[in-house]
Specification:
Layout: H1 2-39, H2 57-64, H3 66-97, H4 104-116, H5 119-141, H6 157-183, H7 186-194, H8 200-210, H9 212-227, H10 231-236, H11 248-257, H12 262-293
Helix pairs in contact: 1-12, 3-6, 3-9, 3-11, 4-6, 6-9, 9-12, 11-12
Length: 294
């Protein structure tokens, strides 16, 4: 009986401890999410209080909505490039700056500064870079690369967005990887050197496997952020030219606030939320498996 009372007291203390966070989570996520699900089954226009429940019509319309399907493909395509370049470059810079390099703190600060900037500010900054600075550099150097129509060429515009997002997120991922490198047990590396694992062999066979949890964190942070990207695209291209750079969240935004079809936009948002929840679930499973293996 005494053990039961102690356990009950522990549960009560834990409930009191998590109550504020749980309350905020319920108010700002659970309730809006539930309301969004409800409105996704309606034809609500966002202006009038009058609407009708139309069942699964919004969800069946998604399958036929070519603009939405294209925005999903575009988002996935962008996500793959963003994850690859951000994490690979982040790892390279982390390896360069993790040791006692002269002025390494200054270099880290320089690479971290873009991560502090607002994504909207970043978008407008790079819009100026692509349209003005690039043209001026070409004028003085005649290098064809700088004569590219970064924001109007359909074949280039998605890569322009990748350049901006990699520039903005590189420093943050680099710092995560530096922390991962410093957490590796140095005795393992020293033992590897004795066995002949030097340079690249030491990195690929010793450091990289030991850093796997840290690498997974970097990949999944990039993945979740890339799926939800909006600010940079909105300020940099607005989804244009035409709708060629319109990503998933921007498509939902236009559906809700330009076309005034909030019921339909809610259905799209529920699909996006389901994708993000799936990503987080996979991340948790992967992290738990890696933890068990270690």
């Amino acid at each position: 009986m005494l053990a039961f009372k102690r356990k009950l007291n522990t549960i009560q203390k834990e409930a009191i401890f998590i109550a504020p966070s749980l309350t905020l989570y319920t108010i700002f996520f659970v309730i809006p999410f539930a309301i969004g699900i409800y409105y996704s089954f309606t034809n609500w226009q966002g202006i009038s209080h009058n609407y009708e429940i139309i069942g699964l019509s919004n969800y069946t319309s998604l399958i036929k909505d070519q603009f939405f399907i294209d925005s999903i493909k575009r988002t996935l395509y962008f996500t793959l490039f963003n994850i690859f370049f951000t994490n690979v470059l982040g790892m390279i810079f982390a390896l360069m700056l993790a040791g006692e390099v002269r002025f390494n703190k200054v270099y880290r600060l320089i690479l971290m500064l873009p991560s502090i900037l607002s994504l909207v500010v970043t978008g407008f900054l790079w819009q100026f870079m692509f349209t003005k600075i690039s043209a001026d550099i070409y004028k003085y150097t005649s290098i064809d690369l700088f004569n590219t129509n970064w924001l109007s060429d359909n074949k280039v515009i998605l890569y322009s967005i990748v350049i901006v997002t990699v520039w903005q997120g590189l420093g943050y991922i680099m710092m995560i990887f530096i922390a991962g490198i410093k957490s590796v047990n140095t005795s393992v590396i020293e033992a590897g050197k004795i066995d002949g694992a030097n340079g690249m062999k030491s990195f690929f066979y010793l450091q990289l496997p030991l850093m796997l949890p840290t690498i997974l964190v970097g990949i999944f942070l990039n993945l979740a952020g890339s799926i939800k990207i909006f600010d940079v695209v909105f300020s940099l291209t607005g989804g244009g030219p035409g709708r060629i750079s319109e990503v998933m969240v921007l498509n939902i935004y236009k559906e809700a606030f330009i076309n005034n079809r909030l019921g339909y936009a809610n259905a799209k948002a529920i699909v996006l939320t389901a994708v993000v929840i799936l990503i987080v679930s996979i991340q948790m499973i992967c992290m738990n498996k890696v933890g068990d293996q270690r």
